[in-house]
TrEMBL record:
InterPro entries in alphabetical order: AsnASE_II, Asp/glu_Ase-like_sf, Asparaginase/glutaminase-like, Asparaginase/glutaminase_AS1, Asparaginase/glutaminase_AS2, Asparaginase_C, L-asparaginase_C, L-asparaginase_N
Name this polypeptide is given: L-asparaginase
Domain of life assignment: Bacteria
Organism: Sphaerotilus microaerophilus
Stored PANTHER family: 60 KDA LYSOPHOSPHOLIPASE (PTHR11707:SF28), L-ASPARAGINASE (PTHR11707)
Entry keyword set: Hydrolase
Active site positions, chain numbering: 23, 108
Annotated L-asparaginase N-terminal domain residues: 14-208
Length: 332
């Protein structure tokens, strides 16, 4: 998905920043409280203002920043409606010839899900860069302003180098949306990509690539129409663990679930009692996908696997994948 070249059109280059809330926009009643704050209290215009005097990528008169508030929520409360709205607005701005990249400020709790959804739906040729923070905006030493500035840097320099796709810029590193996952509840470097590692570092306002950039665009993009349904399919996550008996699957089948992700032990193994119920669900037409419940690695194929696997996707990303598969095949 591309909207042409800004320089060719004679328009100034522009980065659009879409705000959705999250910790990066949060405030605390007590200075230094990095846990008891309230998310989504400051608007995106105020966050951009916190960057202070023109810095780095903003010094050029040929570059403009534009802000839009798409939502104002704690990302733990992310909804399908906000996902659709965010995807629509990101796609609209990316199609503009003067826009070289789009930045999204987001909460960290469901960031890996939103990033994966945008990757599968849009797969843009221009940079679509998510960013976030682990400390609220009024912390004594907030991490949000630097992360936001870095995300803008990735948008501008990535576009100049022809590097697109959905990305996360945080803590001085750049991650691919299809690989990133949250691995820590408190540290500033709370994200990782398992075996894949980061795509790049952001050092002193410069993007330094570490490995081959994932290809953007192409058949990976499902398109906005996949999100058009008023009612989305019911997809849930169940976990295999000691003592699992599968009763939760029976309840979900009775409730009309259409897709199930099982967070597995080991190399995609499932308690035999739970497996029996999952196979029954699959026989009834429910899509079932295995994912690893640990934070890294991928399911290594082998043996007589009776349930499909999600490779290196986290259970929450695998849920998004199943959701999109069901949406893509819904009538109408």
């Amino acid at each position: 998905m591309t909207g042409g070249d800004a320089s060719a059109s004679g328009l100034p280059r522009r980065v659009v920043v879409l705000g959705t809330g999250g910790t990066i926009a949060g405030t605390s009643a007590r200075p230094g409280d990095h846990v008891g704050y309230t998310a989504a209290q400051r608007g995106i215009e105020e966050l951009l203002g916190s960057l202070g005097p023109p810095l780095g990528v903003e010094r050029s008169a040929s570059l403009a920043l534009e802000a839009e508030q798409v939502a104002q929520i704690d990302s733990k409360d992310m909804s399908h409606a906000v996902w659709r709205r965010l995807a629509e607005r990101a796609a609209w701005h990316l199609a503009r010839p003067d826009v070289v990249g789009v930045v999204v400020t987001h909460g960290t709790d469901t960031l890996e899900e939103t990033a994966y959804l945008l990757h599968r739906v849009l797969a843009p040729d221009k940079p679509l860069v998510l960013t976030a923070a682990m400390r609220p905006a009024d912390a004594l030493m907030p991490d949000g302003p630097q992360n936001l500035l870095d995300a803008i840097t990735v948008g501008v320099q990535g576009a100049s180098a022809g590097l697109g796709g959905v990305l996360l810029a945080m803590s001085g590193r750049v991650w691919a949306a299809a690989e990133v996952r949250k691995v820590h509840p408190y540290r500033l470097d709370a994200f990782d990509a398992g075996d894949a590692g980061p795509l790049a570092h952001i050092e002193q306002g410069a993007l330094r690539r570490l490995r081959t950039w994932p290809a953007a665009g192409g058949p990976a993009a499902l398109g906005l129409q996949v999100l058009a349904a008023d009612i989305w399919p019911e997809v849930q996550i169940v976990t295999s663990h000691a003592g699992a008996d599968g009763r939760i699957v029976e309840l979900l089948l009775d409730a009309g679930v259409q897709g199930l992700v099982v967070a597995c032990t080991g190399n995609g193994s499932i308690h035999q009692a739970l497996l029996a119920e999952l196979l029954r669900a699959q026989q009834r037409g429910v899509l079932v996908l295995r994912a690893l419940r640990q934070g890294s690695g991928c399911i290594v194929p082998g043996g007589a696997s009776v349930l499909a696997d999600a490779g290196s996707l986290t259970p929450s990303q695998a849920r998004v994948e199943l959701l999109l598969r069901l949406l893509a095949h819904q009538p109408g």
